[in-house]
Specification:
Layout: H1 3-6, E1 26-27, H2 39-47, H3 62-72, E2 79-82, H4 84-96, E3 103-106, H5 112-119, E4 124-127, E5 147-150, H6 162-170, E6 177-180, E7 201-206, E8 219-222, H7 225-235, H8 245-256, H9 258-281, E9 284-285, E10 293-298, H10 303-312, E11 315-316, E12 318-319, E13 329-332, H11 336-351
Parallel strand pairs: 1-11, 3-4, 5-6, 6-7
Antiparallel strand pairs: 2-8, 7-8, 9-10, 10-13, 12-13
Helix pairs in contact: 2-8, 3-8, 4-7
The protein binds pyridoxal-5'-phosphate.
Pyridoxal-5'-phosphate binds next to α4.
């Protein structure tokens, strides 16, 4: 083995859902929004003055943080933005999780947490979900170097109430607690109001799901000025210009169209409600979904088999070959037309 190979940082990367090239497939595997971004986004792109691209974008991303601050009713120095919430979360691990004590997160959760912890050599202890796939609050009372969990959780789609989040934050005044709210807009109550009371709480959200901008890569964190300042110091020690001019302008445009945002959320939650009933009629069950996806298991057909059959029919859903959840499918809520194709295929499949 060459000597340089001994110095490699060996990592086991996060594996995202498949991205087939064809736009024809029914793509219900990566929790993207099935509706286009707000009309103002196309307009912002068309009107963009390409001469501005000669210059570096504003390193403080002030244009976007100002609109976010207004939308969420916080001060501008309580807002941090990044290249999708993955960038915001990765930067947060780097900034806040520097203890010898292990950080805590659920065993069944967003798989990237473990990847970042390994990459950054942060000790961690996964906390098992209970038999009904819920987080156990007492597991997060023990000594730790930080806490992170999604709410609603992924891939279960289960939402914990605000009181649950506050309980964990209030038990951990000496750690930073990160609540990953990638799916909070689909009917959950954000922990955002708690940031005024707890200076150790960081709320992370994204434009990828509820605002239909996964391709533009925009995420943000809201927290106390002290947390945000720490994040900015680390970001500016690594890469000052994370957000492109296009991301700043389209992100701003998306945020300014509240009516379109509410309309899209309304359509998705309506389709989700229908999906619960249609899938139940086909023999599926699962936790009450509070994100833009369902986590379901079938009474007789193994999930692995269904996943393969669906894929063969160009209907992509997500399957995790992991203990305790290897008989579940995670199905993104698509348009009513896409969902109809799913139901039709399944009805047909159940007949054989
Ligand atoms: C999708 C997702 C993210 C990251 O999304 P970005 O596209 O990077 O903003 C973060 N956390 C969870 C739980 C997610 O499902």
């Amino acid at each position: 083995m060459s000597n340089w190979m001994k110095n490699l940082r060996r990592v086991e990367p996060y594996v995202p859902g498949e991205q087939p090239r064809s736009l024809e497939v029914v793509k219900l595997n990566t929790n993207e929004n099935p509706y286009p971004p707000a009309p103002g986004v196309a307009e912002a792109l068309h009107q963009m003055n390409t001469d501005t691209l000669r210059r570096y974008p504003a390193p403080d991303c002030g244009m976007l943080t100002a609109v976010l601050a207004r939308r969420y009713g916080v001060a501008q120095n309580q807002v941090f933005v990044g290249v999708g919430s993955d960038d915001v979360l990765g930067m947060s691990f780097l900034t806040f999780f520097n203890s010898e004590k292990p950080i805590l997160f659920p065993d069944i959760s967003y798989a990237f947490y473990e990847v970042w912890a390994d990459l950054l050599r942060i000790p961690y202890e996964k906390q098992p979900l209970d038999a009904s796939l819920r987080l156990v609050r007492e597991d997060y009372y023990k000594e730790n170097g930080g806490i992170v969990f999604p709410n609603p959780n992924a891939p279960t789609s289960i939402l914990e109430p605000l009181s649950f989040v506050e309980d964990i934050v209030s038990h951990n005044p000496d750690s930073v607690v990160i609540v990953d709210e990638a799916y909070i807009d689909f009917g959950g109550t954000s922990a955002l109001p708690l940031i005024e009371k707890y200076d150790n709480l960081l709320v992370v959200q994204t434009f990828s799901k509820s605002r239909s901008l996964a391709g533009m890569r925009i995420g943000f964190a809201l927290g106390s000025p002290a947390l945000i300042q720490a994040l900015n110091s680390v970001k500016n020690s690594y890469n000052s210009y994370t957000m492109s001019q296009a991301a700043l302008e389209t992100g701003t445009a998306a945020l300014e169209d509240e009516a379109y945002f509410q309309e899209t959320i309304g359509k998705i939650t309506q389709t989700r409600q229908e999906a619960v009933q249609r899938l139940a009629a086909l023999g599926f069950s699962g936790p009450a979904p509070m994100a833009n996806f369902l986590f379901v298991t079938h009474e007789s057909i193994p999930a692995r088999e269904l996943f393969a059959a669906l894929r063969e029919a160009d209907i992509f859903v997500r399957y995790f070959d992991k203990p305790r959840i290897d008989n579940y499918l995670r199905i993104t809520v698509g348009t009513p037309e896409q969902m109809e194709k799913l139901y039709t295929f399944l009805e047909d499949y159940m007949k054989h």
